[in-house]
Design goal:
about 260 residues; Herpes Virus-1; three-stranded antiparallel beta sheet; two-stranded antiparallel sheet; disordered C terminus
Length: about 260
């Protein structure tokens, strides 16, 4: 802000707005906008919001128009001696210079504060970058170790895969040998079974021809004087009674059986 600037800024800490219309000027060389001046200086005793000075005099606070009319300009200093006019003008210029200097000091303070915050932020950023670099280097080392482990697992996997393929080939060979042996055994077993069946059938036929069961298949090969004795001897046991019961159903139970010669 320079001496040639057309407007001043409100000295209220949270306002810093450009002044226009009416402003409140204090004896401690501070100026406030109409809104904050009306609010702050309505209380008694009045305290300057900028420097906390007590403003108890009648002319310690003045509400002035920043763009006076031409009539006001023509009459405000009319009738005053030149030295008084010069004194008033000097004091007004001193107030303006103080405002300019104050604004420059405020800007410098704001700049130094911003630089301090920037340095703190840069320091914090450097610390964070260092920590991130450490974490990144640690992660890179971990990635390298994991890559080594992965390569080792790949090597083991390839070895296991080769051994598995070799076992599969051996298994296929053994399976083929087993299938061929089983097929040969089946062929040999079928041949032996057929031979045994043929031998058993021949022996069975021969045995049947040689002997017969005395109870189920009685054989009457010859007829002679002792035919009755041989006939009854073949029917001894449990089948004799049954044979006579079913062979002579019309015979009465109390009729004696007469043996004929």
């Amino acid at each position: 802000m320079s001496l040639c600037d057309d407007t001043l800024l409100c000295n209220f800490p949270k306002c810093r707005a450009k002044l226009s219309g009416f402003a409140w000027v204090t004896a401690c060389s501070h100026v406030f906008c109409d809104q904050h001046g009306s609010g702050e200086f309505s209380r008694s005793p009045a305290i300057c919001p900028a420097c906390s000075s007590a403003l108890s005099g009648k002319l310690d606070i003045v509400r002035t128009e920043l763009s006076p009319s031409e009539d006001y300009k023509a009459m405000v200093l009319a009738g005053l001696r030149p030295d008084i006019v010069m004194d008033i003008s000097a004091r007004a210029l001193a107030f303006w210079s103080y405002q300019v200097h104050q604004e420059r000091m405020y800007q410098e303070y704001s700049l130094s504060r911003a630089e301090t915050q920037l340095k703190q932020m840069e320091k914090l950023l450097n610390q964070q970058n260092q920590s991130r670099e450490l974490e990144l280097s640690a992660m890179r080392g971990e990635i390298a170790s994991l890559k080594k482990v992965m390569e080792e697992y790949k090597r083991k996997y390839s070895e296991v895969s080769e051994r598995l393929m070799e076992r599969n080939r051996q298994y296929q060979k053994l399976q083929g040998l087993y299938d061929s042996l089983r097929l040969r055994n089946m062929v040999v077993g079928v041949g032996e079974r057929d031979a045994l069946l043929q031998t058993g059938h021949h022996d069975f036929s021969t045995g049947v021809a040689r002997q017969a069961s005395p109870q189920r298949s009685p054989q009457f090969l010859s007829m002679g004087p002792d035919v009755d004795s041989r006939f009854f001897s073949c029917l001894e046991g449990d089948g004799a009674k049954t044979f006579f019961q079913f062979s002579s159903p019309a015979r009465e139970k109390d009729r004696p059986f007469i043996k004929k010669h």
